[in-house]
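Hi R.,

As promised, here are both runs. First protein below:
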Amino acid sequence: MEEVLLLGKLGERACGTREVISLVGGRASRVLRVLAKLELEGLVESGLERGNRGRPRKVYRLTELGRKFLQAYQNCERFRLRTSPEGVARVVRQTREVERLVRAGRSPYQMLWELDEVVRAVRNSAEAG
């Protein structure tokens, strides 16, 4: 999500237009469109900054809402589910097995309940013996 990348860069400090484009990379027109969108959403604000000479440069900085959004996104990112191709393949195999059981007229939930009953019976007999 390039918006979050851009917000992260602006979270460090206010940046001029050229600096934002070089930090984020990509086409200048695309970066400027994203900046304009973020500004409309209230996550970024722009202003003019006067230097010693020349015309003032346009700088972008996060708004308070932008900071809160970025912090919330980073908190959610810590809990993002991560999986491997093997994990996805395992889920596909399990889904196919469930579909096979359903086609055969068996309830996967009923079978799981029965298996749980067997496990409990074995555990209880081991504890009693």
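And here is the second one, sequence first, then its structure tokens:
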Amino acid sequence: MKAVFRYGVFLILPVTLVILWLAGVFHPKISAGEVKPERKVVEGIRTEKVMVHSESLLSFTGTTVPSDRAEVSTRTMGFVGEVAVKEGDFVKKGQLLIRIDPRDTRARIEAARRQVLQAQKRLEAALARYRAAEKTYNRYRELLKEGAVTPQEFDTVEAQFRSAQAELEAVRAGVEMAKQNLRAVSAGLSYAEIRAPFDGYVVRKNVDVGDMAAPGAVLLVLEKPPYRVEFELPERFYGKVKPGDRVAVRIESLRRETTAEVVEVEPSVDPSARTFRVKALLKDRSVRGGFFARVYLKEEDRILLIPRKAVYRKWDLTAVWVVEEDGVLRLRFVRLGREMGDRVEVLSGLSEGERVVVEGLEKACDGCLVGG
């Protein structure tokens, strides 16, 4: 019995005391209450209110084109003897561009002249035969009336006369063809000098001295200023954009902004794309053709716009840091629409009047407080 008592005192009692201590029996009681977490305060953040804009600036892509463009070629074949211009030169109408070596053309002209002389000699011979046959024909015709020759003899003479007459007509046609050939070959001599069809810039040169120029091959490309920007607009703008209107234009590669005056509006809408073409004359005369351009038009529309620098991108998602009424930062995912200059349209996720972080995005954290 004493052993059992000792066992209870030395084993059960300590275990019971440990359990009571762990249960907090020997600790002072703390009344229950709400524990408020301490929030991190972030400094150096600038915010901006989300505003509804009644007028939006829309961007459309376009291309700069010249008023006129000519691909200069030649109608005669020969070696290039002189190239009087280089790419980038401004040329006047009638100015010499390229001279083709005329020696081959002159040789063809001389050959054509000899053909004309030979055809004229054949004509003289045919004319002499015709006149002799005509005299014989007229004499036999009188003799036939007098009965001095038989009809068979007259028919033979008449056939010879008709043959001489046909030969004369054929030789005359041959002379005319030889003369036309001479005129055509002689005209080729004038094509040996290629001159500018209008005032403009040389934008491409495809030949050098010594190259062979072939008929139809493009030797030079000229562009005539002033330059225009051509762009497509959705059909909802039809009737709203008219000749005389001014639009803002930005040449992206040149980082240059200018204006353009609408000079032509396509009178019909493309049924497949639901767009129509507009041409506007650029105010900046130093722009050349082929540049990518952005054209900006204003449109009345109630939309939410935020600065592009306020957009926080995480993986394939787009979000903004929103400052709630109590100053707490929250990351909110949004759906974006069109880009309009330095701003972007918000389709969903934000409401008018909410504040978003526009500077210091790298400092923002979810649940933090915005300081001062």
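A quick note on the second one: The radius of gyration is 48 Å. Let me know what you think.

Best,
J.
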